[in-house]
Design brief:
680 residues; flat; alpha+beta; 14 helices; 16% strand; 20 strands
Length: 680
Amino acid sequence: AVKQLRDERQQAERKEAQLRADNEQLEAKLSTASSQLAKLQQQLSSLTQLQEGLQASLQGKQSDEASLVAELTQVQQRLATAEDSLASATADRSQLQQELRSQGDKLMLMESELKLKSSRMDAAQQQLAAEAEEHEAQRALLQKQLEQLKADKDEARSQLAAATAELEASKQQLAAADTTRSHAEAAVQELQALHDALAAEHAAVQAKVLELEANLAAATAKTAELSEALEAANADLADARAKSAQQASRLAHLESEFEALQEVMGEGEQRDIVGRLLGRISNLQAAAVAAERTRRELHNQMVELRGNIRVFCRVRPHPQSAVKCLAGGTSLALTLDNKEHQFSFDKVFAPGTSQQQVFDSVCELVQSALDGYHVCLFSYGQTGAGKTYTMSGANTPEHQGMMPRAVNQILESVAQLTEQEWQYTLSASCIEVYNNQLRDLLADGAGSRPEAGRITDNNAIKHDSAGGHTTVIGANRLPVTDAASAAALMARASEARACEATAMNAVSSRSHCVFMLYISASHAASNTQLTGSLCLVDLAGSERLDRSMVEDMRKREACSINQSLSALGDVFAALSSKTSHIPYRNSKLTYLLQPCLGGHGKTLMFVHINPEPASAQESLCSLKFAAKVNGCDTAAKGGARRNVTQGVASIQDSEAVSALGKRPATGQTLAAGPKRSKLG
């Protein structure tokens, strides 16, 4: 079945290549028609100038009126001929546009067929994974049976030794020698037959183990083929993005040309021609909107292929490291008590990885927030592992963290989409969760007075049941218009956040910081509105009291931090086991992040590791927790949903590939058996 799907996919790719070639030919014809139109416009301009010169000469030379009238008539005839040529070129252009739309419809049909085949391949991959698990269970059962047979063999040998001893004793007793010897010989023969049977069963078990190993190798090869298919889908997405950008550029160029033509051609019949051309421009704008919608769908399918909950691991630099990053960029090994523990995640960033390289792996989720999804990026790990540096960074451009880079990407994309008549509104709030109490870090005086901005209402967190924004009653929600205003808001929140010194970290965050960017957009031409959000969360570090050596208030803060992180772990454990009740309300932090963690959003977790040997135990706990999170997926049935409203009907698009399931990464010792791989 997989081979048949691969053949069908190759046929579809060949058809798609043929359609692209036809599309390029049509675009070449369209370019030729455009150049002819430009030449005709130049001729029209020159004829208009000639007409004006003739009219000026007519006023000064009444005697040559008859000849000038004749020349004017000739010029008008040439003008009529030029207008006929312009109308012919316009008709050719319309025909080429219709052919281009027809080819685009065929391309969309091919893309839908490709999506269907991709879902079939994913279903086949899941079936192979289930078979691999079943083979692994059979192998373990056969191994246990082999061990039991070995034990029976040893027992038989001991019985044989005992029987031999009894035989020697019976030889000394001449009175009962004949009877005892006959019984002993019979026992020896029976034991020998049992030994032969056990040897035959052992050989059969070994043959079964070899057969299971061969099946496992075949399943691994099929997984590699499916990974290649995913890379091909990513290439198709890149081509669609390039075409969308090209169409937008061409549309802007045509608009400028037709505006100039409208000014030149004036009133009457010529203005009607301009009106029809502007109508065609409107059709091109609608096509650009449809192309952007297709781009969003393809982008979301790519994100869904890699999972709605992803885990990245980042290792902090240290001269003496107990952590080794393995080849491939998705695995690492931690050495603790002379025992090596291996873990696999979506990405593993070695100590030398730059902030830009890390953000390059995050930017596609930031784009999902702009497309109308709820997205959450949060960092987890022990205190002093580098969480705040990853999220906030430093003031220099190369050391900027994920928060300023994400906001800058959104602002740049908004500037581009504004040229396509999209209207975006951005606003932000910054909430601190301190000792399980909410505090507005953007409140007046929050940087100088700890009590400023404190929210006492226990029901201040409000979720929109229709999929809109999550708000906190009593918290400021300030507009974001450019990169400077966003940077000022983040700097203001950073100054107000609770930080203290401990034995492990000179500047230890004593609270969780949640920066919420609200995104609202509308497009008047298509009567479309969308709502998205981006939550950037810098969690306080987990810590052991015997190492941080905190007392009094700092001790209370550490206990509250550990409790909220434990509540976060309970939420992911419930999501992993797919229980009916998810304990979001056990903590203000988890309830605030509910739409992203278990609703219809997308979540990325950064687990940060301090590789020093003294922190190996804390690192192992963090990695085990991250491995548990990596096995989860959101509670959305059918995948994440984009919050879109068109006209008066509210639509929540299910744009996920429903057949896709996220295969969990495993964290285990080397002796625990083979690890499962994961697409993406």
